[in-house]
């Protein structure tokens, strides 16, 4: 009965929307608010988006920028908060230990009934995808938005859709492809094979690459809205995952070679500042008295920790002379024991905003190109890119030169450089075939089925065509 009621409600809202102009301000609030009262598990979060919102450029832009506000206003997916990809991905791999409270992510004991998997890892990205699909449809119908703004918004919508699908496909494997805003049609979609999902991701990113401007002028030169090179950076990562080494190298080089916009920060303490030279794409905070939720959640103020701390294995992986150990890791003690925590973000809470949440940065692009060059047997080029990251950390040039040695060195550097950022460690272990060995040794409950999350029970009940991942 509940499902029937929701479907009827959807029909009524669609019908009403034809002849009643819902105020633009309400539509925008519904899009940008991070409040849980707007979340409905059976229907999209943003049913208030109507054609009227796209009658002028300001309100149309607000629909897109509202997605970023929702991401940061949430406690999940992209927020940096405790149910985000960053923290729960770190717990799921071997970066973070959990204290005081149990965690199914840390214990690798997820079930299909885990609420965070359903609401934060599944529903939330699909809600953003739904909004992007609405944007793409309504833009085509609007006669009051200039071609320049239309191109920007279309590019952003396609980029965000690709970004969300990248995390969905790497977390769940085969997932349904929703490419329009017809909720009834999408509610019983079958899972699309991983290759089909990646084809859509690359298609969207190539479109975004062609549509988006080359600078950050439309965000007042803040790096908080994607431009062409943000699309390039994600394309480089996607092609690395697809083992298309040539294309990975091409798109990483496109970002690296733009020295006007991007440069490695020589001072490690400045990497995560807002609009840093190294930043490619960041999200600005929306919560009062906070900079980033990563800083709020990671920085420990007492011992023992109440939430999470870095694993001893990760801390011990750093050379004593590595400046990342000095700049990006701090500790607390109770006099007997020491716990270490990420200190990439230096601000736990403050009214003045000096840090933005880093989504993509230049160091990753050097490591992508180093790995792609190694696979293409350009060992000198790989060494040069690897040494850029090592030297910035105060380390000497690498001495390894063979393909296998270089790949091992690059994987280690990715671990040390990108720790507790956006589940890079877990995804790296999976895509390189090392997850079962590394995590099997590090975590007592790990098994092969843990390479994918379970499809949420709620989705299985809602969609008769949905199938479950093995082992759940």
Automatic annotation (TrEMBL):
It is found in: Cell outer membrane. InterPro entries: SusD-like_N, SusD_RagB_dom, TPR-like_helical_dom_sf. Gene3D superfamilies: 1.25.40.390. Residues 330-472 form the RagB/SusD domain. Keywords: Cell outer membrane, Membrane, Signal, Transmembrane, Transmembrane helix. The keyword Transmembrane applies. Residues 104-240 form the SusD-like N-terminal domain. Belongs to the SusD family. This is RagB/SusD family nutrient uptake outer membrane protein. It comes from Zhouia spongiae.
